[in-house]
Write a structure and sequence with these properties.
With about 200 residues, this protein is α/β, with parallel strands linked by helices. The chain contains six helices and six strands; from the N terminus they run βαβββββααααα. The two termini are about 25 Å apart.
């Protein structure tokens, strides 16, 4: 899944935290596939603890415009996507870099979750949106749509193509609708400067 590019940029590292059965590993693969669709070099892999439903699971994604050899777990990600807010107490959750950002799936607002309004944290009710649009509590498309809107890391049509690799028909249309609805819940380009600063 590697393509040659002429533009040299820094490596962007993303960690997706969730619980077994929530689909955060699939979310990582979809994000990597979107990067591939955009012509980037990508990598995605999971890290499992106890192999049981509901256990904490981390998935990692790397995206770059040039080849990279790094294969280790991501300890200090540029961005973190948290699928389950009950994981916020885990020490590793705070490992995001200061210039990066954290996207949380929760019906609560920042202050209710204990974050200052000016923090580099965004919250969307991804599961609630998924239940409303998909009829299922699967927040992947919502979180990825919001993430790309916040960062401008990849074009939205790359995510659309990645989703089309996995879904078809009404299921695809509902996931695209969910992605678009979530993207409208966040400030466009809120974390964009961090991505572009790393590229310069």
């Amino acid at each position: 899944m590697l393509l040659k590019m002429n533009v040299v940029t820094a490596l962007t590292e993303i960690r997706i935290d969730g619980r077994g059965g929530q689909g955060n590993v699939i979310a990582a693969y979809i994000l990597a596939e979107a990067g591939f669709e955009a012509g980037r070099h990508v990598q995605a892999f999971p890290s499992f603890g106890p192999e049981r439903r509901g256990a904490p699971v981390a998935a990692y994604v790397r995206i770059s415009d040039r080849p990279f050899k790094r294969r280790c777990q991501i300890l200090e990600p540029n961005y973190v996507i948290i699928q389950d807010p009950s994981l916020l107490h885990l020490p590793r959750i705070v490992g995001v870099r200061p210039e990066g950002g954290t996207l949380i799936n929760s019906p609560k607002d920042l202050e209710e979750l204990g974050f200052a309004p000016q923090s580099r944290t965004a919250v969307i009710p991804a599961t609630a949106l998924a239940v409303e649009i998909l009829g299922l509590p699967i927040p992947n498309s919502a979180l990825l749509g919001a993430f790309l809107m916040l960062t401008d890391l990849l074009p939205m049509d790359a995510l659309e193509k990645a989703l089309a690799r996995r879904f078809e028909g009404e299921t695809l249309q509902r996931n695209l609708q969910l992605m678009a609805a979530a993207a409208k819940r966040v400030t466009p380009g809120l974390w964009k400067e961090a991505v572009h600063a790393a590229r310069n």
